[in-house]
Design a protein that fits this description.
The protein has 204 residues and is mostly helical. The protein is built from 6 helices and no strands. The radius of gyration is 20 Å and the shape is elongated.
Length: 204
C-alpha cells in the first residue's frame, strides 16, 4: 500500500535478488575452512545474522515512524519520491535477512546428526515452525494491529530465535557427528582427523 505498481515490482525483484546473494554469502561463511572449528563458524555466523536482523528491524521502525500508513489514503510512493530511498535499502536488508536466517537454522539442525531419517524429521519440523511463524505474522496484520506493533511482534520472534540459535550453535554443534556411529555416505572419516577437529573445538 505504500508504493505504486512499478515501485512494488522493483522492490520485489531486488528482494528476491538479495535472497540469492544472501544464500551464497552465508553458505561461504558456514563452510569457510579458514575457520577450522565448526562450532566457531556457527557462532560467528549467528552473530553476523543478528547484526543484519537487528539493523533491519530498527531501520524499519524508524522508517514507519516517519511514514505512518493511512489505510484510507495510501501514499503510493514512486521510486522518484523521497521516502523510497530509505525503504529500498531496508528492502535489500530484509531480502538478505529472510534467507540467511533460514539457512543458518538449517545448518545448525543438520549438524545434530548424519542419519538421513532423523534429518528428514528435523527438516520437516523446521519448515513447519517457519511456516507457523509466517502465518502468525500475517495474523497480526489481519487482527488490525498498527504497523509498529507488527514490527515489534516480528522482531521479538526473531530475537528469541537468535538467542536459541546462539545457544544451540555453542552447545550442540561439534566437530563431527561421525563419532556417534551414524550412517552417512562418507562414514569412513579417519579417526585422527576427527580428533584434530575436536581439539580445534576445545581450543576455540
Amino acid at each position: 500500500l505504500y508504493f505504486n505498481i512499478r515501485t512494488r515490482s522493483l522492490n520485489s525483484l531486488m528482494f528476491n535478488l538479495m535472497q540469492i546473494i544472501g544464500a551464497i554469502w552465508i553458505g561461504l561463511m558456514l563452510d569457510n575452512w579458514k575457520i577450522a572449528s565448526r562450532r566457531t563458524r556457527g557462532v560467528v555466523t549467528v552473530a553476523t545474522v543478528a547484526v543484519v536482523v537487528i539493523a533491519g528491524w530498527i531501520g524499519l521502525t524508524v522508517w514507519l515512524y516517519r511514514n505512518p500508513l493511512d489505510l484510507l489514503n495510501p501514499p503510493l510512493f514512486d521510486w522518484t519520491d523521497g521516502p523510497f530511498g530509505g525503504f529500498f535499502v531496508l528492502n535489500l536488508i530484509f531480502g538478505m535477512n529472510m534467507v540467511i536466517y533460514q539457512v543458518t537454522v538449517q545448518w545448525i539442525i543438520s549438524s545434530f546428526t548424519n542419519d538421513p531419517e532423523q534429518l528428514a524429521r528435523l527438516a520437516g519440523l523446521v519448515k513447519g515452525v517457519l511456516a507457523g511463524g509466517v502465518a502468525a505474522a500475517f495474523g497480526t496484520e489481519a487482527a488490525g494491529l498498527t504497523q509498529l506493533n507488527v514490527v515489534a511482534y516480528n522482531f521479538s520472534i526473531q530475537a528469541v530465535g537468535l538467542v536459541l540459535m546462539a545457544i544451540m550453535a555453542w552447545t550442540c554443534v561439534t566437530a563431527t557427528s561421525y563419532k556417534n556411529g551414524e550412517s552417512a555416505a562418507s562414514s569412513s572419516v579417519e579417526t585422527e582427523a576427527v580428533k584434530d577437529m575436536e581439539k580445534s573445538d576445545r581450543d576455540s
